[in-house]
Fold these 4 entries.
Entry 1:
Amino acid sequence: MSASDTNQERRRRAPLFPWIKGTLLTLGSIAVTMLGLLFVTFVIGRVMPIDPVLAIVGERASQSTYDAVYEQLGLDKPLIVQFFYYLWDVVRGDFGMSLLNARPVSEDIARVFPATMELATLGVFVGIVLGVPLGVVAAVNRGSWIDQIARVVALVGYSMPIFWLGLMGLLVFYGVLGWVGGPGRLDIFYQDIVPTRTGMILLDSALAGEWSVFRNAFSHIVLPASLLGYYSLAYISRMTRSFMLEQLSAEYVTTARVKGLSERAVIWRHAFKNIRVQLITVIALSYANLLEGSVLTEIIFSWPGIGSYITTALLSADMNAVLGGTVVVGLIFICLNILSDLLYRVFDPRSK
Amino acid sequence: MSLLEVENLWVRFPTRQGIFDAVRGVSFTLERERLGIVGESGSGKSMTGRAILRLIRKPGIVEADAIRLEGRNLLDLTEPEMRKVRGQKISMVMQDPKFSLNPVMTIGDQIMEAYLLHNNTSKAQARAKAIAMLEAVSIRDPERVMRAYPHEMSGGMGQRIMIAMMLIPDPQILIADEPTSALDVSVQRQVLDIMDGLVKERGMGLIFISHDLNLVSEFCDRVLIMYAGRIVEVCDADKLHQAKHPYTQGLLNSLPRLDQPKKHLEVLKRDDAWADGESVGGS
């Protein structure tokens, strides 16, 4: 092999190292963040003025029973040792038993989280599909009546309490018009027909080919998802508008017009391409907010999601469930952050 | 018939304090020559260039008796017809390539886009044409540059790429709006020479907008001096030192000269009366 060949070879290989380094760095920062999150949840679990032993054995248990459970829970060990026990449990996906129903918290979360995920995904989808074009159109027609309407739509979405909108939506579309299904994920006749695979009923029924179940599930999810979608639409459309305004005044947009491009090409092919990275951040945040569980929406629509799960657990001092839920929510935020970081690299050539 | 005739062009912007006239009744003609437009910031020189291309955005208002390109009045054209004029007939190079090139599109895509828009050819042909154009503006390794993004380029390279992009559809007029102000002095000359060579070779008309009187007098055939939105004087570039208008004289006297050293440079004086007079025709 000649010297120039080796050089070329080296040049071809070189980009791999920064890539590996970047991945390692990302993984490292995830680990540190996770550790911090777990430490905080652990401390919260220990400083809460709730005796976990009493919560299990009840007030009338004998001292020997109390001591036995105390030891079983590892509470006699030093705090740092307890933390490592906790860490080891979480790593294995064990969040302890729910004090309310004596089932593993991880099983509970695996049951409620897909419900939230289904709702949030559909919600953010509505928010993106309507919010992004609305924001772009508002920016392009700045100051016109379209812009004003978009402003009012967003303002209502921001400022209207979601429980009121939810109740009114149920009253009008379910109670009076009967266009949609009521609270819950399915009508009672359709429950337990399709096998649980993903826990998301729309997906499960589609996989099983049970289209009547799919239709029923859709009629139930459409109203809460639209509401959450409206809420994220308000945020996404306002942010899209301001990002677009910034780009539309940039010189390269004038360049695109000088070339003779149509206004549509100028907006979508040139200006819009430049806001994708910022938009990803906004959408990821919006999605994370919805995934965290929209407590009020879930309660109004009797949606068995993680938001109502954590709230119920909190109100009945079921700390294992609360902490398990918190860790999962934290994990979601971290995952979405990584995902948006990865997408930056795809959409912004400068970050390569 | 002139290549371009501008008659009584006004550019107005409504503000809270009333209507602001950025360009006030400017008339001039352009042949296949190099016409310089000189003036200080806010004198309306850039607005004149943009108004010709109908690039003044709302709420700005452009009014003129006529803007004729080879006898055809551009004011009568619909927006789709005007799009065919932009790029294909009249093109523009702007000040800073850092901002005037799209940061998230490859240079190749941006140049090819300009060509494909006005020519019904295959992508492969457009690519070949773009590479040839990059070579024409003295870009080394054009294949690599085609795949690169604007942030990987230096200022001088960026501006040469911009020139390539604007000349690839073969326009008849190029408006160069301060094309070298953002560049290092050392590369200014190089970029200008390349632009000049291409403009001459293609027999185009060039409108060179600048605040640099020295540069314009060296580089252009004729010079329009703008002040407060109107043309105060028109002269041949080589007879600039014979300029009669006090503003032009003031501009010339405020420049240091190697061949005539002075102890004190004059301060540029301005007179409100200059702004009120009629615009001088630039034909």
Entry 2:
Amino acid sequence: MKTIRLDGGDTEDLLYVGKDLQKPDVTQKVTGKAVYTDDIDMPGLTEGRLLHCPHAFARVKSIDISRAAALPGVLAVLTAKDAPEARFSRSTMAEALPSFAFDGERQDQRILTDICRYRGDCVAAVAAEDIYIAEQALDLIEVEYELLDPVFDPFEAMKPGAPKVHDDVQNNIAFEMDHPFNMGDTKKAFAEADVVVEFSGVNSRQKHLHMETDSAIAHFDETGRLTVISPSQGPHLGKKHLSERVFKDLSDGDIRWISPAIGGGFGARLALGLEPVAVLLARATGRPVRVTSTREEDFNGYSSRTDQHQKVRLAAMKDGTVVGIEQHIVSDAGAYLSHSATTSLVNMQKSLGLFRCDNVFGHVKVVYTNTPVTAGFRGYGNAEGAFVLQQAIDMLAEKLGMDPIELRSKNIRKEGEQSFFLPCKLEHSKLQECIDEGAKEFGWAEKFRGWDRPRDEGRFKRGVGMSILNHASGAGGFLLEHSSAIMKLQADGSANLVISPCEMGQGILGALAQVAAELSGVPYERIRVVTGDTDVTLFDIGSHASRSMFVVGNAVADCARKINAIIRERAVPHFEKRQIHVTADQLVARGGEIYPEGQPDKAIPIGEVAHDEIYNFTDAGSQISASGSYLSNSHHPNHQAAFAEVEVDTETGYVSIIRYLAAHDIGRTINPLLVESQMQGSAVQGFGFALKEDFVLDQKTGEVLNDTLLTYTAPTVMDVPEIDALMIEDPFEKGPLGAKGVGEAGVVNPAAAVANAIYDAIGVRLHSLPMSPEKILAMLQNDGEEHPAGSSHVSGQRL
Amino acid sequence: MKMLATFNVNGRDYDTVIEPHMTLADVLRDKLRLTGTKRACTAGNCGACTVLADEDPICSCITLAVLARDKRIETVEGLAAPGGALSPLQDAFVKNNAAQCGFCTAGMLMTAQAQLRDNPRPTREEVKQSISGNICRCTGYVKIVDAIMQAAEEIQAAEGA
Amino acid sequence: MGRVLLPFAYHEPKTVAEAMELAKRDAGTYIMGGCTLVPSLRRRQRRDKCLISLARVEGLDDFGIHPKSGLRIGAKVVASALLPNIWAGKRFAALHEACEQLYPPHIGNMGSVVGNLCSAVPYFDLPTAALALDGEMHVTGPDGDRVIALEEFYVAKFQTALKPGEIVTHLFCQPYKPDTGSSFKKIYRSRRTIEDLHKINAAAMVTLDEERDRIIDARVVLGSWGHRPNRYRAAEAALIGNAPNFDLFVAAAEAVTAELLPATDMDWVEKTRFAQARVLLRDTIAQAASRAKSRHDPFEDATEMLEDAR
């Protein structure tokens, strides 16, 4: 990884920030000691399993649980009649959304159902003394189904007379709206423009594929209080949602939610998974219950990206000024809405907001079908949008005869201009620098050979492509975007940092502890992070939207600064004792020591002050502690420019990525090792999205065809090309020590940059993801002219 | 059909009661409480459950426990020295941040451990080949390959010294 | 689709006779490594009530690979055992490559070659490779011993010509003729319909004449297309008698695809499947031919000279 510091800040003297420090939970993970939900044992723990409907659309005519219930060791067998009538959404984001977007979070699902809307809908739940008995019990439940006519295609589903997935929804349209920030007059702009392009495309249902399959433990203690243990990305919202929507007899404080080690999230854990059914079973049995799912069940019923069928139109003047942008989205939610409306909205917000333009129109429809439920996935609509928008902007560049870099540079929103996220100014953006430095490092000027160059001779053809993005560092101004942190000092001068982002592997606990160490004066290695328990941590909406570093980081910074001030203030008498007369303002607390400014030789350990505060037998005893909070009122976008070089095998259709470079507008890198890890990991997830990962449903039965890791081809180590990460550093004054978010952005550009590179190599544009060998070959065989029929019906769209 | 079985895991004999339909991963995790080995696909497709059987990496999730009784099994819990000092491979994973969510980590470590015993001076390409059946969703693999290469160097250096 | 397996009875016989006796008594299923059986039991694709492990049966661990005596692999030999064997690599390259490319590589340490062949899973690689090497299954059973050529071995999806109780004791492939090469390759695809398989695999064996400029024998096999791997005799005929060159390999590949039936009714899917099969077959045959040309081993000449001298 290379870092380019724009403000020449090399005179800074930081002890922890900017260093490759080891994250706190890594040793547990390499020794097998990290405890995940499925690793937990507790007295009386029982095992729960779910029975899934094997039909795409069916009504339960009768269900006979008697044989299952009679099996020795079976503690409960529950069906729809035992589940609360209340409808809820698996997405917990409803609790953090403003009212206009809340409609996009239809509460439409029950824990157990007697109308099964997709293969995988849950009809019964079993709890037993052990997993083997639970499995045998499932096998003994007899269900008679009345089959209903299913609908699998969103465009078919909207037609009059199509089967209704939910009785109360007209034409299966679960959500429809114009983008709230539409402006200008696109009709006029398009009519008056010199050049107009249109491109349509659809992404695949990329699976999150967190390695840990879904799992949850629920347990009512002797006082009747509920503890939920599950790999949640947002346990505070989880308990609010669970009490507000599902179990209305519980209130927020009745639930303690613990997130142990999390085996990957990528957005999937923002939704309720098995928690509600675990609670239901725990209630019925009076015992702790763990419910687990299999990989196949995760594939069939658990979430994926929403397939968003999009049409983008761009209008520009001859000089390349973009004067109009239109985006139409039709999203296939699957059987329940979950996050699919909000991801579609976010797609519009990001796609329509990237370029400076006065005439903008966006419209979205989200449609129910009898297919598995889709949800939010890293990038949250942005990756889905970039694939289409970034190809459209390249088409515009080709029509205008401009270099893709030149056209993008001319139109991106610059610092100080109006931001599109909210009616406010774009306070900080180094996107231009990302484009320029990235292009230099990649060698774009030599590698991009112009729009009218001849294609390479022979079987293997090479090409280059690029893509840019804007992403959020938390959805401030839109979501309920605040976080808090607590810090307290132990008698030995070590500290506890109590925070509630969710550590899913991204290393956020380490990065936040680095901020705490830098600003509080307590050394990094002496900060112990406490997290993952809603009884201990303060309210937080969890880890998503690249918010943790920025929003939680600012809360930690606030808290650490307070601690630093308290330490200095309480240290004054200690210096008095030593005949050194100073005020708190003249003291420095740093790296575990306190000293008068400029006199590090006079230092005393922080531990001395911390100890004497607690073990103070006068009337002034206390413990050094503080809490800090931060409320974000803007998205504070981070940006990225990415460049890809690919080689297409024109005989088999296989695409190899030769090199990939992403330049990220990060503000400040808190921990380069962690940041580089995020950049590499997100890029490879993006390569899978671009080229390999296809979630295929049988169009006749709705069956998931690739429900194993053998047939759903996720990237392996053999798919990884040379990846370069370039950090464009320019501390942002509103970020904690200048940092902005980084985790999600990296997954957005790959598909778009690779698509543009494929076009450069073979002159063919692909309209659907993944850009699999078969699609490329089909396009090549047809010389890019005749296009094979695909599943999408958006005008002009193929494959 | 309960049966008493002995398993040799990380050099220690464990007596336990099993049934023939239990997999090795189930017995290691649920009976012996060695939960470092993970079940992720339970189909032999992802490598997360990798343990060594007579020094060869196997998928414990699709191996019937009864078939593993006479094998020397090694799991992630056996990598560190008895006093807790990390092995060179574990240490390299820590230094390179090669574990993110950590769910594939035990399998990666065990697969790499077998490789480094077989081939103490692997090339980068050989390392990639050996972990090509281990799926990681977080890291993008680069740091994992870096870590294994670094561990190989460090083991060599220590033996040379 | 369970998380764990449902209970079954289990036996661990020590002899072939004992195993066959148990199989008859309890209608049991033989298990070796279980790489195919265990996942299908968990997914409830199979519901066997009794398993009979062959792991402790004596006499199923033959392992002999030599250019002069052929390849003989007992039922208990795991696929990775072939990897370090120099003759497997040089003389039975197709099978060696298929073993080497097992996914994930761990499977090679768990699953036996014979078990893999007996699973009759339509997309498996070893059957394709072994068929190109004229493999034959040596079987013992309640009614005595018999030999089943792999070509007759596959009856239907997941179904072989084995009768109840029969045990394959070993796989045997004839020794290579001189100047012979073989190869195996595969291509991964996306599934489009329920009938689709997620890959295509191919294997070939080519024998050249003494001057090494004319093909005198050939095997061309395509697998993961339909329920079993198949030999394509028209393609083999197209190769035999001709000088090995690129155009010939293309013609042979086309002779195979001319016989193939589409697996789906989606035109573009089939077009690309056929195109990929052509490339795969062409390259597999080309590699086998190139090995036939180059893999001539002086060691064999020396052995022959020694024998002549005697």
Entry 3:
Amino acid sequence: MTSPLRLCVRRRPAAGGEGPDVVVSVSVPSDVGCIEEAVALVARHCFAGVAVEERMRFRLQVALSEALANAILRGNHEDADKRASVRVELAPDAIRVHVTDEGAGFDPHAVPEPLGPDGIQGAGGRGLFLIRKLADAVEFNDRGNSICMTLRRR
Amino acid sequence: MAFTQSRQQNGVVVVRSDGQLIVGNRHELKELIQGALAAGDRRFVLDFSHTGYIDSSGLGALVTVARQVRELGGELRLAGLNDDLRSLFELTKLDSLFSIADSPAQALAGF
């Protein structure tokens, strides 16, 4: 069976130029069963041939898994005609991960923190919270259908 | 990804999680625990020694099954979390909700 994921990797020419050294793009179908493979694929390309701090790999895996779950479940509502796109920019000092869905977007400021008594006992509502804790910076586009997570190399 | 289940001589069910516990397989874990509850099991140790990462859906599944076990008078303990995995429970304050042991052997001791 062929993978339903679509991968593209671009490397900046060694001699000069602006922007990230490597850009990894993956198009993911709206199926939560594809998330694990997509995360593994991105992690493999992000850390190929470089010394990796395991904590960095862990943060990337969890944050990307969360963002893809949000994109597929809440953004695309598991619509088979829609896809989630991942674009990862690798720079010497940081990894920037963009995840975009085809949904109407949401207001990230309206999502409550899940640390009250009801939140702790609840089954959901921790995804965005975890992303904010694991990433060094989190931004959304105006529409609210695209998240950008920055993880700095330490 | 696989969850494997084994029953100790004292009746405690140990469930080992290999790979990730995430949105794509959380139902598998819930169904396994719920099946064991239906069969009369009440004491569980979830072994995460061989788990890479857990997402918020996986954490939510653990909250759900732990509540179901508690409501039937049982107990569910977690074991084998490395520092990264344990940090997820600390960040979300779920470490206050679960009994977390360093190893399955420690979780089984006195169970």
Entry 4:
Amino acid sequence: MSQQLPAILFLLPLFAAISMPVICLKHRHWCYPISMAILAAMTLVSILNLHNVIHYGEVRYVFSGWAAPFGIEWVADGLASIILVLLSSLGLLGVVFTGPTSPKALGGRIVHYYTLILLLISALTGIVFARDLFNLFVFLEVAAIASYALVGVAGGRALFAAFRYLILGTLGASLYLLGVSFLYAVTGTLNMADLADKLPLLLSSKAVVVGLVFMFIGLGIKMAVVPFHVWMPDAYANAPDSISPILASLVTKVALLAWVRIIYWVLNVTIVINDIPILLLVAVLGALAAVIGASLALAQRDIKMMFAYGGISHIGIILIGIGQGNQTGFVGGVFYLLNDAVMQAALFFLAGVAFCHYGIRTIDDIGRVGKQAPWVIGSLIVMALGMIGLPPTGGFFGKWYIILGALEANNYVSVAAVLLSTLLTLAYFVKVFEAIFHQTSIQSDVQFGEIPLSFKLTLGVTSAAIIILGLFSSPIVQLLLNHTLPPGL
Amino acid sequence: MVDAFFAVFQRPNYLTFVVIFLWGFYIMVTRYNLVKKLIGMYLVQTSVIYFLVSISAKKGATVPVLLSTTEPVQAASYANPLPHVLTLTAIVVGVATTGVGLALCAAIYRKYGSLDEQKILERMEEIEALTNKKFLKD
């Protein structure tokens, strides 16, 4: 039974997605509870899976009986299991939030909307588990197609943003596939473990290096690392309010996870550190992204735009941690990835509540309803602490380990980049709080009333999670150190 | 230099791949019409698929069905089936993406009455200015 858990985790949302249009044909209001139930079940199974992996070691799942180098292989190791708990629980929260905020104009097509959300989550599950480069490509594309459609649902500006996202995302996927075919032409295999055995002997081949560069550019577009980030703020800011938390917290992070797999699991740790200076590239691009993303965020007045650029800078910080090539940096990066996914979800929940309940789009408007929105202001303070990285929150400990790792690697540029991006983050949150607590701002006369329970739930749970990740940071980091490190690091 | 030139012409498939890829990329970057952009994107996808197929081509090889069960298997006499299978999947993915892209184009055309990127951006500004005016009046 425990051997089958990876497949069950993937099939739960997939089957629900496929059967949704049939089940909910007559009863449109069923799709909200059904999606919630499926994702709640998925969260439970993923926790069970994590428990199994920690106690009994990793699970290798072989499809239809073809052994590893020939068939497609999925591996549920520590890293995949932890990310999967995060993915399914954030997916659940995202769907809980979707109910009252889903676009009203959809009408009967709301069924397809839920289908796409479940399809997106099952594809992301596939990316997390896949240990086959081509399998990874297929799931990247399934996830991408679902997200293009979900971004476009809002209509108007979102259509154009979705089209840009589609053009750039497909270019990225094509480049990734090109890189995969280069590696396949040289080694004749697509399995990650098999490639890890064969690549050390083939490093003199230019095709390997060129293939890796193409794969990096392709995945870089998918994870919105700085020179390739142009699609991301537009797409996430214009997407429907109910979907941007799921997109912002999961899609880019899971693409980043795929890249981590390729650096540390396909290439050997000794190769990345000694032969191909790919970690240097990752750390430098991360530093650029951290600083540029945060300074662009500073220039925004639209809440969602600001948070989207903040997300770009945080992708940079994770890359800095991953790129140090030592245990502390790697664990710091993964821990920060967990925190950042929670924080991005929280921020976009907040932006969604602000727009759907209070009709606010820009930071100047927040001040006008400040007195009437205790939940929004309270959770915004917690999120700001997390984003800036102040002690009781997880953001602080993530940055702390990343800086320790950079110091261990004598990489002072990275340290400076993390600190500078922290200062810039502080600056744009000061801007937000200035708008809120500025005494002269005119209070709105409209009575907005209580926010619905699902809004309170999502804001409360994510804010609590930001604090809890900080309070329990040392056992979590210990868990990451014991179970998620790549072989040989 | 001359050697490099001849080496390129030894492998016309690589040359074709590069030409199609860059052609598609050029269309994507320079054209303002959204459908033309999609065509460029499709060319890029197709070029990668073409590359994947062409690296598996082999002279004098046949389909990978065993010719005889008694003799030992001669790998050299069979074409590698895996890239073709991968190609099939990649084509399906490409078709799905193009479908979503065309649907988005249709929705954009219905909303803004044009497929030209610059005209669409102009209309967007106009509509936004109108809604802001209404907002101020209210």
